[in-house]
Write a structure and sequence with these properties.
The protein is of the alpha/beta class. It has one domain: Alanine racemase (TIM Barrel, Alpha-Beta Barrel), CATH 3.20.20.10. The protein is about 40% helix and about 20% strand. β4, α4 and β5 form a beta-alpha-beta unit. The longest helix is centred in the C-terminal third of the chain and has 18 residues. It is globular and about 50 Å long. The mean pLDDT is about 95. The structure holds pyridoxal-5'-phosphate (PLP). Pyridoxal-5'-phosphate (PLP) binds next to β8 and α9.
Length: about 220
């Protein structure tokens, strides 16, 4: 099937209230344009330099989402245009995003990455880390970021029960924290679900899915 056919099929299978982030990492601008011409405006990348190259070449009404693990020293390359940063998992990175956002006189929206997978390899904060972050005075000083919710990745396993329970954990954390709104903490987004598990994620309360290979085809590298 073509990119457009894949995209239409996925759009039809998800509720209107769920945002589809089309993950275009490693794919050429031609592929992104195909999806763009079919109406898709939200794209996700996992490498800052690749995203900023694509930003320069493509229409300016695209919303670029950074979904990969962040290196603080590269935040400056996307501070001008990034729409949402999904994978924030340290105070140091939040501080750097705030600093770069300030330079561009903007407020950058972020999601905190929560560690929900049992596997050791995944990045992310624990619920305890987040609770400590939320009561820190230092966080309150960061007026050029807005934390809009949470992102999580389930274990790479076939067992649907495990995946479902990890997504459910993220939803429960969200429920627990959503009322603790502050000036720069306004959770409304739960970013969870990829090509293989987005349907389960939506059933478990996802509001934003990050789908790559089911739209653009498989990748040779990540
Ligand atoms: C690559 C990637 C995706 C998309 O993966 P697919 O399995 O191709 O849908 C989603 N989220 C993150 C963080 C990724 O790095």
């Amino acid at each position: 099937m073509s990119i457009v056919e894949n995209l239409k099929k996925i759009q039809k299978s998800i509720p209107k209230s769920v945002t589809l982030v089309a993950v275009s990492k490693t794919k050429p601008v031609e592929d992104i344009l195909e999806a763009y011409q079919a109406g898709q405006r939200v794209f996700g990348e996992n490498k800052i330099q690749e995203m900023s190259q694509k930003f320069q070449e493509l229409p300016k009404d695209i919303e670029w989402h950074m979904i990969g693990h962040l290196q603080s020293n590269k935040v400056k390359y996307m501070a001008e245009f990034v729409h949402l940063i999904h994978g924030v998992d340290s105070f140091k990175t939040l501080k750097e995003i705030n600093k770069q956002a300030l330079k561009h006189n903007r407020v950058i929206d972020c999601l905190l990455q929560l560690k929900i997978a049992k596997e050791d390899t995944k990045f992310g904060l624990s619920i305890k880390d987040i609770e400590a972050l939320l009561i820190s005075d230092e966080l309150k000083k960061l007026s050029n970021i807005n934390i809009k919710g949470f992102m999580g990745m389930a274990s790479f396993v076939d067992d649907e029960k495990i995946i479902r329970s990890e997504f459910n954990t993220l939803k429960e954390y969200f429920n627990k924290l959503e009322k603790r709104t502050t000036a720069n903490f306004n959770p409304s987004i739960i970013s969870m679900g990829m090509s293989g598990d987005y349907k389960i994620a939506i059933e478990e309360g996802s509001t934003m899915v990050r789908v790559g290979s089911a739209i653009f085809g498989s990748r040779n590298y990540n």
